[in-house]
Amino acid sequence: RLLIIDFGSQVTQLIARRLRELNVYCEIHPYQNVTDAFLAEFAPKAVIFSGGPDSVTRDGSPRPPKSVYDLGVPILGICYGQQVMMQDLGGKVEAGQSHTAEFGRAYVTPSDERVDLLTGWFMDGSGREQVWMSHGDHVSEIAPGFEVYATSPGAPFAITADTARRFFAVQFHPEVHHTPNGATLFENFVRMAGFEGDWTMGAYREEAIKKIREQVGDAKVICGLSGGVDSSVAAALLHEAIGDQLTCVFVDHGLLRLNEAEEVVTMFRDHMNLQVIHAQEQELFLGELEGVSDPETKRKIIGKLFIDVFQKYADQIEGAQFLAQGTLYPDVIESVSFSGGPSVTIKSHHNVGGLPEKMGLKLVEPLRELFKDEVRALGHELGLPASFIGRHPFPGPGLAIRCPGEITREKLEILRKADAVYIDQIRKHGLYDDIWQAFVAILPVRTVGVMGDGRTYDYACALRAVTSVDGMTADYYPFSHEFLGETATRIINEVKGINRCTYDITSKPPGTIEWE
Ligand code: XMP
C-alpha cells in the first residue's frame, strides 16, 4: 500500500482519487500522525508528500520523520512536499517573492533530452507540458544527488529527481485536472514502485466497513434516507457494517415524485432488510405551505420542518449516538473553501447542517473521501440496483420548487403524473443516462385549448432537461423535435389538467436548473 502524508493541501484527496483510478490502494494520514513507529508499522511500498499551505522556511513547519528517507521506497513530493524533501535532504528553499510565485496554469519545459523520465511527457514534440502551479515559495538549490528534468518560468526546478534513490519532486500539482497529463506521472510512479494495479472498489468497501465498526463500536446510528444516491449508498454500507444498530428515517413531506416513497421504503425495508421509519408528514408540510408562493419562504419552511420532523423521529430511537450522512468529497471541499465566503445566496439550500450539534450526535460520514462516480461504483458493489444508482439528483424541497406560485394538492397531483410520463419517454428513448437531470414544472397559468370538440382551460407545464458535470453550470438538452412533439402529445393526452407544454431552453447561468 501507498502512504500519502498530508501537509494540509486543499487537493490532497485528489491524489488519492488519481491512485484509486489506477487501482492502487492508498491511505492519507496527516503528517502529525506519521511517526517513526507509524512508518515501521505501515511499511509503505511508496510514499507521496502532499502540498500544503505552510512555508518550509518557517521554524516548526510540518515535516515527515527523517526515517522516511531510509525506507528504501520511492517518494514523490508535490509542491510543499517538494520543498520539504529538498530542505530535508540538503537543498534550499526561498520564501515567496512576487516574481517567482506562480498560481494557475503554467508550462514546464524539459531541461535536456532525458525528458521521458517518470513523466513520459514532452513526447508529442511540443516541447512543453501544461501544469497547474500554486506556490509562493520555491526551491532555490536542489539537494545533492538530484538533477533537474524540467523548469518553468517561476520554478527553475519544476521536476527534479534522484533516480538512484527513486526520489521525485515536482513543484506543480499533477493531481488536479488542469495538469492534463498528471495521471501519467502517477501511473509511472506507481508502476516503478511495483504496484500491480489490482485493487478494486470491493476492497474499498471492506476497508470502509472496518473503519465504520472502529468508529461506531456498538453504539446506535441514525441515518436520514432521502432516496438519493448518496444517502442510499451510505445507508447500505452502514447496514453491512453494523446491521441493526442502524435505523433510517425517511421523511415523506408530500412533495415526492409518483410512487417514490413506496419504492424507496420497499427497497430498503423489504429487499435490503434495513430498519426504516417512514415518517408520514405530508399533512404537516402541505399545511404549512398553504398559501405560500415566495420561493425562499417555501424553502425556509421546508428546511425548518424537515429538521423538526427528523429530530422528532430520531428522539424515538433510544441511545442513538451517531448521525450518518452521505457527505461526498466535493461537499467537503465546498464547505471548507466557501463557508463564510463573500458569495451571495441564490437559493437557501436544504440541509441538516446544524442538526448533529443540536441533537448532541456525532457524525459518521463514510463517503467523505469519494466522488459521485465512485459512490455509484460502491453502490453497485453493495448490490443496489443499477436503476437506483443512476438516478437523477432530486432536490430536498422536492416538487415544491417545481410548482411556482402557490402549491396545491391538485397541482402536485397533476405534476406527478406529467413528470412520470416525461421520464418514461426519456427512458424509452434511451436518453436517461445522457441527461444530468430532467423534470416537469407546472406553471401558475391556465391557457385555453381545444380537445375533441370542446374548449379546455388547463395548466401549462414546462419540461426541463439539462446536461451538467456538477450542477454548478448546465446547458439544456438538445432533444429532437420528434421527441419533443411526441412527449407533449403524450402528456396532454394522458394527464388531465394539462393542455399545453413548453420546453425550457435556458442554460445555467443565467437560469438555474430548478425553477425556484
Ligand atoms: P439549481 O436550481 O440551484 O440546482 O441550479 C442545482 C442542483 O441542486 C439541486 N438543488 C437542491 N438539492 N437541496 C438539494 O439537496 C436543495 O435545496 C436544492 N436546490 C436545488 C438541483 O436539483 C440541481 O441538481
Walkthrough of the structure:
By secondary structure, this protein is of the alpha/beta class. The radius of gyration is 27 Å and the shape is globular. The model is unreliable at 336-342 (pLDDT under 50). The chain has helices at residues 12-21, 36-42, 80-88, 182-192, 201-216, 229-242, 260-271, 282-289, 295-315, 329-338, 355-359, 372-381, 386-389, 409-428, 481-494; strands at residues 2-6, 26-30, 46-49, 75-78, 92-94, 102-110, 129-135, 138-141, 147-152, 155-162, 167-170, 220-225, 246-252, 275-280, 320-324, 362-364, 437-451, 454-467, 475-476, 498-503. It has three domains: 2-192, Class I glutamine amidotransferase (GATase) domain (Rossmann fold, 3-Layer(aba) Sandwich), CATH 3.40.50.880; 201-389, 3-Layer(aba) Sandwich (Rossmann fold), CATH 3.40.50.620; 408-503, GMP Synthetase, Chain A, domain 3 (2-Layer Sandwich), CATH 3.30.300. Helix 5 (201-216) crosses helix 12 (372-381). It is built from 15 helices and 20 strands. Bound molecules: xanthosine-5'-monophosphate (XMP). Xanthosine-5'-monophosphate binds at residues 347, 349-350, 393, 395-397, 437, 471, 508, 512-514. Xanthosine-5'-monophosphate (XMP) is lined by residues 347, 349-350, 393, 395-397, 437, 471, 508, 512-514.
Layout of strands and helices, then pairs:
Blueprint: E1 2-6, H1 12-21, E2 26-30, H2 36-42, E3 46-49, E4 75-78, H3 80-88, E5 92-94, E6 102-110, E7 129-135, E8 138-141, E9 147-152, E10 155-162, E11 167-170, H4 182-192, H5 201-216, E12 220-225, H6 229-242, E13 246-252, H7 260-271, E14 275-280, H8 282-289, H9 295-315, E15 320-324, H10 329-338, H11 355-359, E16 362-364, H12 372-381, H13 386-389, H14 409-428, E17 437-451, E18 454-467, E19 475-476, H15 481-494, E20 498-503
Parallel strand pairs: 1-2, 1-3, 3-4, 4-11, 12-13, 12-15, 13-14, 15-16, 18-20
Antiparallel strand pairs: 5-8, 6-7, 6-9, 9-10, 10-11, 17-18, 18-19
Helix pairs in contact: 5-6, 5-12, 6-12, 8-9, 14-15
Bound molecules: xanthosine-5'-monophosphate.
Residues 347, 349-350, 393, 395-397, 437, 471, 508, 512-514 line the site of xanthosine-5'-monophosphate.
